[in-house]
Amino acid sequence: MSSTTAIRGARYWIRRLIQAVALFTIAEFSYYGIFRCPFAVPYVSCANCPVVQCPGKQLWLIVLLGILASGLLFGRAFCGYACPAGMLNELFSKVAVLRGKVRGKFAAVAGYGKYVAAAICAVLFFGMHNPRWAVPIRTGEFVNSTVLTFEHAFPLWLIRTSIVVGTLLLGLLIPYFFCRFLCPTGGVLEILGRFSPFKYRVADSCTDCGKCDRTCGLETRPERDNCTNCGECRSVCPVDAIHLGTAAKGRGPQSTA
């Protein structure tokens, strides 16, 4: 086995290991945020939430600080390494019907959706004190409590949850639909990523062959919107122009993809 193959394999399994740990740690919290959280914006008002069964009661602050720190240092790395929704989208992308078909101007315009979603969340949280859109079901059996939450939810909560679930399922058609076009956390991390020091970068030796964005599940390339710094593209670059570092060696030719 060559050293390049060994490094590629190590990089792959390190990411899988981090994903497994994250799934074990925060997947249930993620579920509660979508299906049990009574607030308009989930994951951020856990200290005041009466749903005592939610693991977010203990996890929310460390998770939010961890996401913020990872965004400041590594941009959208949380999306590619630890987010349960990101993992679900990665799984869906393997069978997505329209893989490689949604690019160009539509993708560029739709990409602003995640910033709009982040702005709406900011208004709801800071401007409207994160209102409750459902009656909190404090305790109870797992499935029945979820059913009760739906039965006692207000229309806005049902609309919010339907949009989240619906756009997650759209990942079966368009790869990473939710992550690329609607995730508010992704929108915030995308902005932080513009200033993060550690990221995959493209050197001047790039020939713009496009192998990296054809390999990428999010159909992007390093230093572009939606790059999660997963590093999967590095192994397919024929001129070894992709590297992980704190400073760019230069830029390759620009692409419209």
UniProtKB/TrEMBL annotation:
Keywords, comma-separated and alphabetical: 4Fe-4S, Electron transport, Iron, Iron-sulfur, Membrane, Metal-binding, Transmembrane, Transmembrane helix, Transport
Record-annotated 4Fe-4S ferredoxin-type domain positions: 218-247
Domain of life of the native organism: Bacteria
Lineage, opening ranks: Bacteria, Pseudomonadati, Thermodesulfobacteriota, Desulfovibrionia, Desulfovibrionales
Pfam families: Fer4, Fer4_5
Matching Gene3D superfamilies: 3.30.70.20
Protein name: Putative electron transport protein YccM
PANTHER family according to UniProt: FERREDOXIN-TYPE PROTEIN NAPH (PTHR30176:SF3)
Signal peptide: none
One GO cellular component, as annotated: plasma membrane
Transmembrane segments: 12-34, 60-85, 106-128, 157-178
SUPFAM superfamilies named in the record: 4Fe-4S ferredoxins
InterPro entries, A to Z: 4Fe4S_Fe-S-bd, 4Fe4S_Fe_S_CS, Electron_Trans/Redox
Gene Ontology terms, MF aspect: 4 iron, 4 sulfur cluster binding; metal ion binding
